[in-house]
Design a protein that fits this description.
Elements (H helix, E strand, L loop, with lengths): L2 H13 L3 H12 L10 H18 L2 H14 L4 H13 L3 H14 L4 H10 L15 H31 L1
Helix pairs in contact: 1-2, 1-3, 2-3, 3-4, 3-5, 4-5, 5-6, 6-7
Length: 169
C-alpha cells in the first residue's frame, strides 16, 4: 500500500474517531524511511490528525500540540488544524488555550463547522463573582457554585410556572 494512501486512510480513521487505528496507520507512515515530505497540504493534514491521535491515545500532549502547530504553519487557512489543536488542548486540560485557538481559527475560517461546534461545546464561562480575585479563590468558587445552583433551580421551576399559567387561562 502506498504511503500517501495509508496517510489518507489514517486521516479518515481519525475523522471517524477511530483513534487507535489512525495512530497505528500514522506510525506506519511516519515511522518508515520513505515517509512523505513534511510540507504541502496533505502533509499538514497528516501532521494535524496525527497530533490528535497522539494526544488522545498516548497522552503525548506536547508533541501533539507541536504537530498541530506545524500543520497550522503549513496551512494557516485550514480550520481543521485549529480544531485539532483545540482538541489537543482540551484533552490536556488547557481550556483557555483551546478557546484562544478556536477564536484564532474562526478569524481565518469564519464558516468552519467543526470550530463552531467546538466553541459551542466549550460554552462561555461566566465572569468570576468577584472579578479582582482569581477564579480559583475559594470566595469565587463558593459564590460561583451558589450562582450556578440558583440558575439550575430557576430553570427547573420555570416550566412548572408556565404550566400553571396555561391551566389558569
Amino acid at each position: 500500500m502506498a504511503l500517501m494512501t495509508k496517510l489518507e486512510e489514517a486521516i479518515e480513521a481519525t475523522k471517524e474517531e477511530e483513534y487507535l487505528r489512525g495512530l497505528t496507520l500514522f506510525i506506519d507512515v511516519y515511522g518508515t524511511e520513505g515517509s512523505p515530505p513534511l510540507h504541502g497540504a496533505k502533509a499538514a493534514s497528516g501532521l494535524s490528525y496525527f497530533g490528535v491521535c497522539l494526544a488522545l491515545m498516548q497522552r503525548k500532549f506536547k508533541v501533539a500540540a507541536d504537530l498541530c502547530r506545524r500543520a497550522i504553519d503549513l496551512e494557516f487557512y485550514n480550520g481543521d488544524h485549529y480544531a485539532n489543536l483545540a482538541r489537543v488542548y482540551i484533552a490536556s486540560g488547557h481550556r483557555k488555550k483551546a478557546l484562544d485557538t478556536i477564536e484564532s481559527g474562526l478569524k481565518v475560517a469564519h464558516e468552519h463547522e467543526g470550530l463552531g461546534k467546538l466553541r459551542q461545546e466549550l460554552g462561555i464561562r461566566a465572569r468570576p463573582a468577584v472579578p479582582f480575585l482569581d477564579r480559583s479563590n475559594p470566595i469565587n468558587v463558593t459564590l460561583g457554585q451558589a450562582r450556578h445552583a440558583k440558575k439550575v433551580a430557576e430553570e427547573e421551576v420555570a416550566p412548572a410556572v408556565a404550566k400553571r399559567r396555561v391551566r389558569r387561562k
